[in-house]
Every structure is written in C-alpha cells, then in structure tokens.
Amino acid sequence: MSEFFNAILYQPILNVLVFLYNIIPGHDIGLAIVLLTVIIKLILYPFSLKSIKSQKALQEIQPKIEELKKKFSNQKEKLAAEMMRLYREEKVSPFSSCLPLLIQLPFLLAVYQVFRTGLSSESLGYLYPFIENPGRLESVSKFFFSLDMARPNIWLAVLTGIIQFWQSKMMITKKQPSVPGSQDEKMLTMMNRQMLYFMPIMTVFIGFQLPSGLVLYWLTTTLLMILQQYLLFRKDKVIELKK
Description:
The chain is mainly alpha-helical and 243 residues long. It contains nine helices and two strands; from the N terminus they run H-H-H-H-H-H-E-E-H-H-H. It has one domain (3-242). The longest helix has 31 residues, at 212-242.
C-alpha cells in the first residue's frame, strides 16, 4: 500500500470506522459500517448524482441517436459529426457517467483494504492520537444476526445481488419509440438486458469471496443509490406534471 493512498484514504476511513465503533452503544461493527457508508456516500454525493443524471440523459436521447445512425449509416464521418452536435445540443457527454464512477473507485479500494486488514489489532497502530484505541474490534455484529464482518457470507452476497438488480432496473426508463429496421437498437437492447442480469450475478460471485463488512458496505451504498434515484426521478416527474 503506497504511503499516499494510506494517508489520504485508508487511514482516515479506518479512523472514522473505529471512532463510530467506539461511540455506538454496544460497539456494534455492523452499525459502524452502515454509518461509515452513509458518511462516504454524502462525501461522494455530487459525483453519484452527476452519474445518475448522465445515465438517464443518455437513455432519453437514445432514440435520436438511433435515427442518426439510420440516416447516416453509410457516412461515418457525417454520423460522428452529427452525434457530437446532438451531444452538445442536449448538453450530454457519452463519458460523463463513467468519470464519477472512477472517482468512487479509490474509496471502494480503501474500504476493501480496511475490511481485509483493518479489523485486526495490528491495524490499530494507524489510529490518530485523538481516536481512542479499543484494543480490538469485535468483528461479529449482533445487530446483523451475529454476522461475522471479517468472513464471507453467501446470503449477504445474494441479497446484495438482488438489490443491485433492483437498482439497475430503476435506471431503465420506459420503452422509447423504436426506429424501424434498426439493428443497432436491437443490439443495444440485448446488451442492456444482458448487463441487467450479468452484473448482479457477478456481484454475488465476487461478494461471496469478500469479507462481509465490505459486502455490507456495498449493499448499503446500493440502497442509498436507490433512494437517490427515486428522489431524482420523482422530482423530474413532478416537474413534467407541472408543465
């Protein structure tokens, strides 16, 4: 682990986790993880909001993109120019939904490192002087049915996969009018459907091999994302009804 990564992400996250663990009645590590997730989510809120809006905007202009592909199917340069013009007019970037996710990746890696090594007594040497050292962290959460946060759990991984499927389903807007004879649209629809089922399956497969603490973080983050999407879509619906 590089010193920079340690100082900027790993050590602060570990200290916040231990602080929460110390102040929570009963010193429940599961509740500490949930609160830590909420704090990180609030820090990353602007980036995740931008990502959701970008994904939604890209889906909404998809019919226009398909029309351009059909109209300029044999003129690649003209198609590229027209698509760039469309992106400018709609104020949408095809890469705008990826950048916020990339920004969140280091946080996920830091949380992974915390739950891989941070629940051991040796890691408590990274605590700041003003954070009380509990001596050891009890990895079993009584609040979450005596779940050991340091060990993998298949049922928590399955639940996380189901919740991620729900979150992905929410991002699929109502069916847009199709472009007759558009093979690209059919291919895109097929790919979206495959990703809808493939990603939750991968979540279960990967989550089963990770410490339950990290999977709980993943689950809580997804639930917060669902809440964020619901509030955003509800706000947009209210605005549309007022027009």
